[in-house]
Write a structure and sequence with these properties.
mainly alpha, 185 residues, globular, Four Helix Bundle (Hemerythrin (Met), subunit A), single chain
């Protein structure tokens, strides 16, 4: 892993971070189709930057730090705003944001204790990111394509997605918590 080289995967990750403000503006102004286009582009870029970094062997220290930051900014902002607009359930948003707060608090604590931490996402963590991004895309897509009243078949499918997202969020949160506790010991 290169120490700090800036490369194409890192540029894509940085672009994902820069897409957060226009996403917020579109969502606040009620331009859900535009918000969906921006968010979907950012979500796809998450997979593209990781694929390119591995394929081109361009993993860097800055990329290792920027990628989770971009994911947290994008997903966290989306969940909060969509919950405020009642496009996502409050309980799911609380689970997602709580996980991020626990991880952040753990990282700060480990840093204060001068414990070296290498952030390596677990398989469940990767699935969780994919499910969170998919959940936001689906919520926006439903808002754009199926305004109220929604078709009856849609509710169980969306509920299953919410449950899967909540489950992976909780499991991956506990994985990170247990990893942190092991490092402190």
């Amino acid at each position: 892993m290169s120490a700090s080289r800036f490369n194409v995967p890192n540029a894509i990750t940085l672009t994902r971070i820069l897409l957060v403000p226009p996403f917020v503006i579109f969502l606040i102004r009620g331009h859900d189709a535009g918000a969906l286009a921006i968010f979907a582009t950012a979500a796809i870029s998450d997979f593209v930057d990781g694929f390119l970094a591995r394929r081109l062997r361009q993993k860097t220290e800055i990329g290792r730090l920027l990628d989770p930051l971009a994911d947290k900014l994008l997903a966290g902002t989306a969940f909060i705003l969509l919950a405020l607009r009642q496009m996502l359930p409050d309980w799911l948003t609380v689970i997602v944001i709580s996980r991020e707060c626990v991880i952040l608090a753990g990282m700060l604590l480990l840093n204060l204790l001068q414990v070296r931490v290498e952030v390596v996402p677990s398989r469940v963590g990767k699935w969780n990111t994919a499910l969170q991004l998919t959940t936001v895309c689906v919520a926006l897509l439903v808002g754009v394509l199926a305004p109220a009243p929604r078709p009856a078949w849609l509710a169980p499918a969306v509920a299953a997605l919410y449950l899967a997202t909540a489950t992976t969020t909780i499991i991956s949160g506990f994985q990170y918590l247990f990893r942190g506790l092991r490092l402190v010991r």
